[in-house]
Amino acid sequence: MILGKNNFKIDAPIVMGICNVTPDSFSDGGKSFKQKDALKNINYMLKNGAQIIDIGAESTKPGSDPLSYKEEIKRLDPILKKLPKNKFIISIDSYKIETQEYALNNGAHIINDIFGGSQDLFDLTKKFKTGLILMHTPAPPKHMQSMVNSYDDVVKDIKKIFKKTIKKLEKSKIPPYRVWFDPGIGFGKNLKQNIEIMQKISQFKFKKYGLLLGSSRKSWIDKIDKSDSSERIGGSLASALYCYKKGVDIFRVHDVKETSQSLKVFERLCSK
Questions:
Q1: Set 218, 257, 264, 272: catalytic member
Q2: Which of 4, 89, 141, 191 is the most buried (most CB within 10 A)?
């Protein structure tokens, strides 16, 4: 797959390792906030099966406040300056066009946008020939959980939004193989809605576009089996294996080694 100036060989299932350079991450409480810790975490994930590293500098957990793009770039800059640009795929988790442009100018291969992209981002993507992850959320993180009752039918409503996005992507002439859709588990959805999305996740496979699942360590697991974020590996793996069988291409996860191993074993068990 050609992303920017690099040709990467990636094979499904693709494990995307999460690196949060924030002091208030819901999953690790800031374990990778410092540069040396972030780089150590990235190297660990690469050695244990990650094909993509997704770096985020702003917490988007429910109720969180937005960060300025200047502060976001300030957090990302020391990490991006230290990373090789052609050894693995670098994804930047940001919805701000200033940060997105900065990231693409500094070696990022994919932009992961929780707000599902904008025309400005599509124009940048076309210019840099890079990838897109386009997620669904009904509102900014600060207020998104107040929107759980805004759907007529959560799956149909998200599909309508994604289909409109596809028309914009086609108009912008962005190749489908460089785009993955993410229905946004935990973003403005309750437990019932999250479960329904995963049960029907194959409905989000459009034409030749890819599909990403981001269910790792999220609170929907706690609502089924009471647990802290660090105790949700079992639920995370269960959802990954279930959704892999339904056509998901990329798994955005905190526990890279465990996810990679479980997918390999699952594949072997399912092979003829």
A1: 218
A2: 89
